[in-house]
Predict the 3D structure of the following.
Amino acid sequence: MEHTKTHVSHDAGHGEHHEQSFLTKYIFSSDHKVIGIQYAMCGLLFLLFGFTLIMAMRWQIAKPGVPIPILGDILQALLGNVAKDGTMTPALYNTFGAMHGTIMVFMGIVPLAFAGFGNYVVPLQIGAPDMAFPRLNMASFWVFFLGCVVMFASFFIPGGAAQAGWTSYSPLASVIPTDGQVYWLVGMVLLITSSLLGAVNFIATIIQLRAPGMTWMRLPFFVWAQFITAFLLLLAFPPLEAAGVMQLMDKLAGTSFFLPTGLFVAGQPIDISGGGSPLLWQHLFWFLGHPEVYVLILPAIGIVTEIVANCTRRPIWGYKVMVGGIFVLGFLSFIVWAHHMYLTGMGTKVATFFQTTTMIISIPSVILLTCLFMSLWRGSIRFTAASLFALAFLPMFGIGGLTGLPLGFNFTDIHLHDTYYVIAHFHYVIAPGTIFGLFAGVYYWYPKATGRKMNEFWGKVHFWCSLVFMNLVFFPMFKQGMDGLSRRMSDGGATYAGQDGVLGLAPQTISTNLDIAYAAWGLALAQIPFIVNFFWSIRNGEKVTSDNPWHSTTLEWQTPTPPPHGNFVGELQVNHGPYEYSHPDHPESDYLPQNAPATPLTTGAKKTTQPV
Amino acid sequence: MDIPYTTKDRPDTGLYNGKVGIWLFLASEVMLFGALFSAYVLLRVGSEPGTWSLGLMNKWVGAFNTLVLIASSVTIVLAWVSLKLKDFAKYRYWQWVTIVFALMFLGVKWSYEWPAKLTHYDITFVSNEAAARVFTDAAKMTGETSYTNRLHTAWGNRYDPNKQDYAKVELKDKPLDGHIVGYIDEAGHEHHIGAAFDIPFWSHAFAWRTTTLAKKKVKSLIFAPAHDSWPAKHGAAAGAVRVAEAKPGAHATGHAAHSITVPRADIQRLSSFEPKHSTFFATYYTLTGLHALHVLGGIIVMLYHLLPCNHRLWLRDPDRFANRIEITGLFWHFVDLVWIFLFPILYLL
Ligand code: HEM
Ligand SMILES: [Cu+2]
């Protein structure tokens, strides 16, 4: 155990540190916990911002052409003619739509789930003093921040932000004459670069900095989830970066990577060489895009797993199977991407291949979910705000996943592609799925970061209202989609209205837009208790009386609260698996921290003699 | 606070942190260039006859640069070995040699390869008749009456090494390539290289496009067809002619013998070998440009390692410094490797 010496000697190490200024301590910090919080706060802010964009859009499709109350005037003041008289023009609708997707995915969820929780929790859970490359970590945050600034600034340039959807399909994205797309691409290149640096850091940290005794099979599942997520980012993001560079060349240097020969725009042939391939963009985009959806979901599954074990006071059922499952999932996620492209004319043989892999990938997803459900079996569940969100994640993710299957078969996708059904599908996985997982994580780890708990009552109000309204918002979209309502229409389908639903959209398909708008308002109101609770509790929440208020086994709770720079005090030796709850050999307490001394009683005692 | 294993290997993985980091980073780089290579394959396979200008590259220059990079990969290893042998002076020496090689590589690109392309033009024509007129002029300049043979070889070498596609592409879409020497404006005035051109630095018309013709009110272009395909009759050496063109005032004899006039009305598209020219050049510039950025990044890192503060690091913690050079070396080998793929696919195949 020679290397333990280098490992934990922070008391001494800490003494060396001079008083840090506010700037180096909270702004330009290389402490993983500060960076984690920076990421998380940015992520939360952008989730809120992206949500505001969609609220304006839902107003527009519920009441096409009617000025938006209050917000409309603000938009007009800020953006000018695109929000003429406080209404939402189709161009503005497109802008908000494209930016909603981009912001939610790349500036909201990834920073919060992967970078925020990952940074704060992973080094603590593996018993490391920090990330492997603290300064790189800081660089990664600031590159991310710069990317966000570019994206945000693009709203205010002439012509506004990008308009071609979060998928930015060429030729559309390349021929819209405004600069929004250029900002989008530059912003994306920065965000991608940041994610790549982060991914390198996470993987290196998990491989290299596990505390003595923290063997691979003792890693909390959240760490596994982050590990696989980091690999997805590391390997899937560069092709999009390449594609981004090529589209940037198309925009700025006039090349034709994604522009076909003989392209006419507004009735005029455009001055390009042609010879490019629009499908190439789609392939490169979805080569990232599909792994990206697992980037969005895996950290949430990780959080939920931690909380399920904690709130059921039982070990996770099938931990090893889950680890295997997540590996298979990660691997397969690289070979399903073209299920987003069945209708592009890429050929039936290709479609058949991707249909097959898509069906196969649902197996590990189901395995993960099954293990989590099984873990609930006969547990005496503690219902807290955190655990409610975590538990609700399971059926919501289930609905999202199952509704993916009809999309994965080509023959059903022909009808469903690009309809509101797709919107409903992926929002079930991401909104009541991932975002619920993230809320669970906020309620769960809040006491570690602040030393106080968030208010439980308002947490539960937040939960129940969110659960109800989420479903009221997204469930009707399945029906709208099956009725044939296309996504991305700025009038909510009014153009295609018909009498009977045969020659056009049935009246109730369109009027559902209004019902959804009400539900969306409900959802917005339901977030107020959370926002208030979040800030109020920093000073006024119930103080925790121990470092481990949830009586958890994992290492992040075995540190002072909040953990100091360098994290752990004294030597750290891990002796136990991640979820040794209600251990039959230890009746004195219903949980056994991973670093509890290895007593001869422990059935797993033989493990403790293993080297790292 | 100390991060473990920044210098020493972790016993169970046998690696120090930086090495894990660089391998991961390189994995992502493989995906980055992998995607670009895939794009290259897809675009090339899908390209129509007469649009993939593979025969244009100067293989020897490419080969020279390949050798330079390979040599630099060796010298950076020598730099690292010197550190392991505790010889800092030797390290400095080899590190500088590596940097010089790297600069040489970039220099060739920056001062020769790219500018030579950006000043070399393709003209395609509005109709087959117009094309025939211009090609006939070019042939006359060489002392022949028919253009067919010359065009066959000129076009074939560039677009059709397997000699299958000549008949598939219309005459008007077969470009005439060469340099812009001057132009005659709508008022009948002649303008020549130099003052009238935007960037005298390159001494050739630089980055003109079809739209430039209208902007400058060009009536007809004075154009020197590429000398290897269309040698002028009096047998002047290609180099000499180019110099003659380049000098303002020297045109009077220069272009009279070695150039033709091409009416603007005959021109469908005028494009230098810039990225916009074709998907071939788009790919060429994007791939080599991104690679050049990596070379530049490597140079900056290597220079950084020569700063005095890093000498102090060496004195304080030699293993750590040697690790940094090792990591830089790994990156540098990767940059070299990318070029070893780029060279054949862009210059040879
Ligand atoms: C496990 C089962 C899953 C299957 C079989 C599946 C299948 C599909 C298919 C075939 C599409 C394309 C539909 C179309 O455009 O016609 C799609 C869209 C989408 N899915 Fe899933 N999916 C699954 C899970 C997930 C998860 C876990 C997420 C995210 C966390 C997700 C996020 C998305 C997104 C964002 C889109 C829409 C992209 C767009 O067009 O803008 N999916 N899904
Ligand atoms: Cu997918």
User: Anything to note?
Assistant: Residues A 167, 293, 296-297, 339-340, 358, 362, 365, 401, 404-405, 407-408, 413, 416-417, 422, 425-426, 429-430, 434 surround protoporphyrin IX containing FE (ligand 1) (CB under 6 Å). Chain B touches chain A through 49 residues (CB under 8 Å).
